[in-house]
Amino acid sequence: MEGYGDTRKEHQKYLKPLGDWRRTHDCGSLTAENVGSEVCLMGWAQFRRDHGGVIFIDLRDREGMTQVVFSPEVDEQVHAEAHCLRTEYVLAIKGRVRPRPEGMVNPNMATGAIEVAVTEWKLLNTANTPPFMIEDRVDVSENLRLQYRYLDLRRPRLAKNFVVRNRAAQAARRYLDGLGFLEVETPYLTKSTPEGARDFLVPSRVNQGMFYALPQSPQLFKQMLMVAGMDRYFQIVRCFRDEDLRADRQPEFTQIDCEMSFVDQEQVMTMAEGLVARIFKEVLDLDLTLPMARMTFAEAMASYGVDKPDLRFGLKLKDVSAVVRESEFRVFAKAELVKALRVPGGGSLTRKEIDDLTEFVKIYGAQGLAWIKVKDDGSWQSPFAKFLSESERAGLAETLAMEVGDIVFFQAGPAEMVNAALGNLRVKLGEMLGLIDEDAYNFVWITDFPLFEYDQEEKRHVARHHPFTSPQDGHLELMRAAPEKALAKAYDMVLNGNEVGGGSVRIHTKEVQDAMFAALNIGEEEAREKFGFLLDALEYGAPPHGGIAFGFDRLVMLLCKAKSIRDVIAFPKTQKATCLTTQAPNVVSARQLRELAIRVRETAKPQTAGPASDQAADQAAGQAADRADGQADGGDGA
Fold it and tell me: Is residue 369 part of a domain?
């Protein structure tokens, strides 16, 4: 059409109101069955191609793309006007569905068998040239995509992630509603209590000098709801933890939070299995095998070195401490624990690859990485094999079933370090050697967790989950006499090496709660200061109760086969806890601070959240292993 220029500003004068136009279909639903139908589509111009006077536009919305055709054979005026269209312009079209010409069918598109011959159209809005192409294989930094997140979310893969997220949430609601759960909202502004991670604090203007905390979980509220007789509670709830971040952590995240009265551990776990099975069926049309496999914490640590084992591949760890206890290799002889990881066929690893793996295990506190290769002639290649006696060689070969072509990695030292180093090395090797079936979903319950763990800095026992986790039956005396042996009524659901849910049966009697506080060296005054409102509630006939919380972001990430929970959160934070889209956090005005009676100490110049600083942080963060339990976003509890 004459007069159409090449700039967005010039094109804006051709904008038209939507008026009474209404969409008949989305851009992903038309098929050969619709041929001959008159339709109205609306969306964004993904691509524009001009082929011999015929203009093709791939029109995109959340559901997919449809090829629409502006042809002078259909309408010369409509075709002439379409020359102004550019990438990401917003338009509405009316036209007739027709089959694509022979040989032009696109099997990679859901709508690839048809196209729409345009008879009318409206330009609804123009757009600047985007900073990156709106397509899945975009080759730009994550920080640039997060800066323009509203454009990033237009990409088909990311858009589909949020369809999955919605389906999973609705499936959970339907399932829990069908079991008689009530959806109850709990406060976001609450009291700061010690819950394992740092609180986000919110100053009170009305009560100056006082602070609210954003909840790390609804743990204390949901226990009070059980005292209140709600019987079965759930909510899909936002939680907040001010902790160091990486790919699978965010300062604000979402849980499916559940609590039940008059139940034991088995009932909670059965309910949770049914919930996850319903989500997988409705989202992926996949039938999970129930009941799920089970493994004790002790078994998981012994064979896999971590309490969230990935069972999609083998490579179990072996304790060889007894074999090398008298070894001349002093690293082994004086170690608390010596474990080995045999990798069948791993002898092909190069020295550089082994050196890289050595650097990897140092992340988990290891000083190095010992290894043995079994050569083709059966001899051993190893930096330390010369220190091993013939009986020690024979013992290792038998215990580990070593064969030609194998490599065996060893780690020696404190048990916590050995397990963390080899457990994470196992996963690293599984990825390197292609041992993991990426299409498999392997679930396992981890049970029989220790009730306590020893804090070396504070020189005392601390609750492994939270101080309201019930000990196993018969373990009350162990809490007093040998707390390191006491086990908890706690359980984690693990999927492909990720903790997706965690919970426990709670303490509901004063006697057991007093014993727990005594074991934690928490006096009555301290207990009342921190948890007084819950302790008061428990005095009014608390029923036996238990629950579980699922890390919803992580679960959706696994459903989508995404690499990071940032891919399933609409506006995520970077690993410096900044939002690149809104530039939060930001400096507030002096007036706002005065209203809150807050004065900011000028210890450093405020640093605006920005792509450059965040990219460096993203590259550096995310190497340390998770602490076990509910400090990850899959666990529940204080």
Answer: yes
393 and 341 assigned to the same domain: yes
| Interatomic CA distance for residues 289 and 292, integer angstroms | 7
Residue 64 structural domain: 8-125
DSSP summary character for residue 484: G
Task: Decide if 361 contacts 425 (C-beta within 8 A).
Answer: yes
Across 570-637, the runs of DSSP E, i.e. the strands, are none
State which of 404, 432, 460 marks the end of a domain: 432
Q: Tell me if residue 268 falls in helix, strand or coil.
A: helix
Task: Examine residue 483 and state whether it is found in any structural domain, yes or no.
Answer: no
Has residue 37 been placed in a domain?
yes
* Three-class secondary structure assignment of 544-589: CEEEEEEEHHHHHHHHHCCCCHHHHCCCCCCCCCCECCCCECCCCC
Q: Which residues of the chain have pLDDT under 50?
A: 1-5, 611-634, 637-638
Q: Both 342 and 248 in a single domain?
A: no
Distance CA 449, CA 531 (A): 24
Q: What is the pTM of this model?
A: 0.89
CATH number for the domain that contains residue 414: 3.30.1360.30
* Contacts of range 184-191, beta carbons closer than 8 Å, 24 or more positions apart: 184/225, 184/230, 184/233, 184/234, 184/235, 185/235, 185/237, 186/215, 186/218, 186/221, 186/222, 186/225, 186/235, 186/237, 187/215, 187/221, 188/214, 188/215, 188/238, 189/214, 190/214, 190/215, 190/221, 191/533
Q: What total number of domains does the chain contain? A: 3
pLDDT at 6: 61
Instruction: Please indicate, yes or no, whether residues 369 and 348 belong to a single structural domain of this protein.
Output: yes
Terminal alpha carbon distance of the chain: 66
Report residue 394 as tokens: 């024979």
Q: Which of 100, 125, 150 delimits the end of a domain?
A: 125
Kindly report, residue by residue over 205-234, the tens digit of the pLDDT. 999 999 999 999 999 999 999 999 999 999
pLDDT in tens, 177-187: 999 999 999 99
3-state secondary structure string across 276-301: HHHHHHHHHCCCCCCCCEEEEHHHHH
Residue type for position 42: M
The DSSP code for 114 is: E
